[in-house]
Structure formats: C-alpha cells, structure tokens
C-alpha cells in the first residue's frame, strides 16, 4: 500500500482525536508488516496535530533518482538494437546518461550482457545458443 494512503488514514484518525498507538494497532491489524512503524505513526500524528495538511513527502536535498526512467531504458534499448556492438561509453555519450546508470539499465532492466563485444540476453535458449 502507498505511504500516502497510510498518512491520510493517520490524518483522519488524528483529526478524530484518536491516539497514535490505537491508529498503529488498527493499521497493524489490517496490513500486518506493511503498516508503518509506531514511531512513524506518532511522528505523522504529531505533525497533523500541529497543523500539517499535506500527506506527501517534502522535497529533500540531494540528487533525485530520475535517470532510470522508462524513457531512458527505451532509449538505451533502441541504441543497442541499432548497433549491438556499441560500447557503454558510446551509449553514455549518445544518451547523456551516466556510465553507471547505463550499465544498470543494460544488466538489470534489459537483462543483457556483452559477449564478444555484442549484447545478448543473459539467459539463452538452446536454439539461441546454437545460433
């Protein structure tokens, strides 16, 4: 379940003056291990009592994780399909995506590995191996 749904529930129950421990127990009863911790429920309940309205996270400093998007995965896939002999450095230059991210996309998302300077699927069928 999405964190924002839990927070909305905490917000509503806090507005009804329900104690955080009761809210936590209700969430644990329904969602088990997926429920937020008691400390999290207490923190959000406190914020809502203090007047917080939003249930979404606030912006945090640091670099956002936005490079491994479906658009970037598709772009790397298309570049490899156009030239299976392309190097990671060339993919990095052509796509503008960081080297580590290109490698992650290739291995984790596309399930490819390089054999004899050409990208192929990690797990080949017997027919594919024979070719």
Describe this structure in words.
By secondary structure, the protein is mainly alpha-helical. Among the domains are: 3-50; 70-109. Helices cover 56% and strands 6% of the residues. The chain has seven helices and two strands. It has helices spanning 3-15, 20-31, 38-49, 70-82, 88-95, 99-109, 126-130, and strands at 112-115, 118-121. It has a two-stranded antiparallel sheet. Helix 4 packs across helix 6 (99-109). The longest helix is centred in the N-terminal third of the chain and has 13 residues, at 3-15. The protein is elongated, with a radius of gyration of 23 Å. It starts with a helix and ends with a helix.
Which shape, going by the Cα principal axes? Answer: elongated
Oligomer type = single chain
Percentage of residues assigned to helices: 55-70%
- Total helical elements: 7
Rg to the nearest angstrom?
A: 23 Å
Q: For the terminal residues, how far apart are their CA atoms?
A: 45 Å
Question: Topology of this structure?
Answer:
Elements: H1 3-15, H2 20-31, H3 38-49, H4 70-82, H5 88-95, H6 99-109, E1 112-115, E2 118-121, H7 126-130
Antiparallel strand pairs: 1-2
Helix pairs in contact: 1-3, 2-3, 4-6
Keywords:
mainly alpha; Transposase-MT_Hybrid; Mos1 transposase HTH domain-containing protein; 7 helices; 131 residues
Quick structural summary:
It comes from Rotaria sordida. This protein is mostly helical and 131 residues long.
């Amino acid at each position: 379940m999405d964190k924002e749904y839990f927070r909305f529930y905490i917000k509503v129950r806090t507005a009804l003056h329900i104690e955080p421990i009761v809210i936590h127990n209700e969430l644990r009863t329904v969602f088990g291990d997926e429920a937020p911790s008691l400390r999290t429920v207490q923190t959000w309940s406190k914020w809502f009592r203090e007047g917080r309205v939003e249930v979404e996270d606030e912006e945090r400093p640091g670099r956002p994780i936005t490079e491994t998007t479906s658009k970037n995965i598709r772009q790397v896939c298309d570049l490899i399909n156009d030239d299976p002999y392309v190097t990671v450095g060339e993919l990095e230059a052509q796509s503008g995506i960081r080297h580590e991210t290109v490698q992650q996309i290739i291995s984790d998302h596309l399930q490819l590995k390089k054999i004899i300077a050409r990208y192929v699927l990690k797990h080949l069928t017997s027919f594919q191996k024979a070719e």
